[in-house]
Write a structure and sequence with these properties.
By secondary structure, the protein is α/β, with parallel strands linked by helices. It is built from 14 helices and 20 strands. It has two domains: 248 residues, Aldehyde Dehydrogenase, Chain A, domain 1 (3-Layer(aba) Sandwich); 176 residues, Aldehyde Dehydrogenase, Chain A, domain 2 (3-Layer(aba) Sandwich), CATH 3.40.309.
Length: 460
């Protein structure tokens, strides 16, 4: 008896009655077949040379630019991304492909003198083969691109397994890529855990972005097979505010990092640590800033905080608010979409889930600290270490934060959100595993170094 394939259904979180994609999950065998077909196509892609790869990636960037309005509108509808942020993501996606289009021309190694005698020693970076990519729904174009573009630039073939909630966005991105790439070099496998497990078990290099629990399983499987793997797994990010900071500016930055895209970013601010006398003024300014941020239809360009991705995500946020004193927000409007007001709470016990787990919603906890050293200890007390923002006019305080905060990224007088695609991205502790993403670091991850010894056939 044959079991019918499960259906992947993606809905508009602002209007759950609208279905954006409904496709059958292909299953484990089809996923492994896709990897094998990619493995067959990969040598030709590599041997086609730098110009062919650079030209294809540049053409992808141009095609994304041409379809920018369509792609942004699709992200608004499928993942509830506010229109202004959706447009910015699409622009960044095109820039990512344009950046990596130059990479095939970069040196792939070096020439070295031998320790003794005639000959040459060469080092050369070569692609792993097939890159298996597992991506989340919250950046449906940018994250698949900042994984796929360097992998392809280095000469790998790619098999992408996106989050089910972003299936339609992934399908449209795949159409653009496949128009510019040889057959089999890029393959989309929609699916869930079954397809993801099969991809991790069969690819030659794996890159994952998602939850800590799933990321841990991905790392365990890949390392058990001896496969290079990187995993980005979220954060519980802090904003440290000192009394000498521009409180109004800090509050505006932090409010945007709490509420933007309904807090559905791994770099969103989850904890606000007020040092000494900053507590009262910051509380007042942050409550006011959160209350002024527009919440509503993501298709409205003025909207900052749209819906959460699912009913389960909204329920999780409502549960997380329990046991804390609400300063702002704390409500979920009775409307068809999965909305929640940006929320700030305080008087939270150290064991509360808000201070130990990533909620992935528009909520943050306000915490007092006696001094900067105390604020740093609070920042470092959680299992995660992705990004911290430090708000101060004191250079010494900023430098202290850079030296003592245990996160992969530290942003001074800037929101915790926002990344630069040409620089390495990643965190510490439970936030990340393996080498960094983005920038030149990504090109190194998707390749391995070979050392060649060339000796003369005959010495005299």
């Amino acid at each position: 008896m044959t079991t019918a394939p499960s259906l992947l259904v993606s809905r508009n979180p602002a209007d759950p009655s609208e279905v954006l994609a409904e496709v059958p999950a292909p299953g484990a065998f089809s996923t492994v077949d896709a990897v094998e077909q990619a493995r067959t196509a990969q040598p030709g892609w590599l041997l086609g040379g730098a110009t062919a790869r650079a030209s294809a990636l540049g053409a992808i960037a141009a095609a994304i630019d041409s379809a920018a309005d369509e792609l942004a509108a699709l992200a608004v509808r499928e993942v509830g991304k506010p229109l202004t942020e959706a447009r910015a993501e699409v622009a960044r996606t095109a820039a990512i492909w344009r950046y990596y289009a130059q990479a095939p021309y970069e040196p792939a190694g070096g020439v070295h003198e031998t320790a003794g005698g005639p000959g040459l020693l060469l080092t050369r970076r070569r692609p792993h083969g097939v890159a298996g990519l597992i991506t989340p729904w919250n950046f449906p174009f940018a994250i698949p691109s900042w994984k796929a573009a360097p992998a392809l630039a280095a000469g790998n073939a790619v098999v992408l397994k996106p989050a089910p909630e972003a299936t339609a966005c992934a399908q449209r991105l795949a159409e653009i890529l496949q128009q510019e790439l040889p057959d089999g070099v890029f393959t989309l496998i929609p699916g869930g855990a079954t397809e993801g497990n099969a991809l991790v078990s069969s690819a030659d290099v794996v890159s994952f972005t998602g939850s800590t629990a799933v990321g841990g399983a991905v790392v365990g499987t890949a390392t058990g097979l001896g496969v290079p793997v990187q995993a980005e797994m979220g954060g519980l990010n802090a904003a440290i505010v000192l009394p000498d900071a521009d409180i109004e500016q800090a509050a505006a930055h932090i409010a945007a990092a709490i509420a933007g895209y309904a807090g559905q970013k791994c770099t969103a601010t989850s904890r606000v640590i007020a040092v000494g006398a900053a507590l009262g003024p910051l509380r007042e300014a942050l409550v006011a800033a959160l209350r002024t941020l527009p919440v509503g239809d993501p298709a409205d360009a003025a909207t900052v905080c749209g819906p959460l991705i699912s009913e389960q995500a909204r329920d999780r946020l409502e549960q997380a608010r329990k046991g804390a004193r609400v300063l702002a927000g704390g409500t979920s409007p009775d409307v068809p979409g999965w909305y929640a007001a940006p929320t700030l709470v305080e008087d939270v016990q150290a064991s509360h889930p808000l201070l130990r787990e990533e909620v992935f919603g528009p909520i943050a906890t306000l915490l007092p600290a006696a001094d900067l050293a105390h604020a740093v200890r609070i920042t470092n007390s959680v299992p995660y270490g992705l990004v911290t923002s430090v708000h101060t006019a004191d250079l010494d305080a900023a430098l202290y934060g850079l030296d003592h905060v245990d996160t992969g990224m530290i942003r001074v007088n800037a929101p915790s959100t926002g990344v630069d695609f040409h620089l390495a991205f990643g965190g510490a502790k439970a936030s990340s595993y393996g080498p960094r993403e983005q920038g030149r670091a990504a090109l190194e991850f998707y390749t391995s170094s070979r050392t060649y010894t060339l000796a003369p056939a005959k010495t005299t």
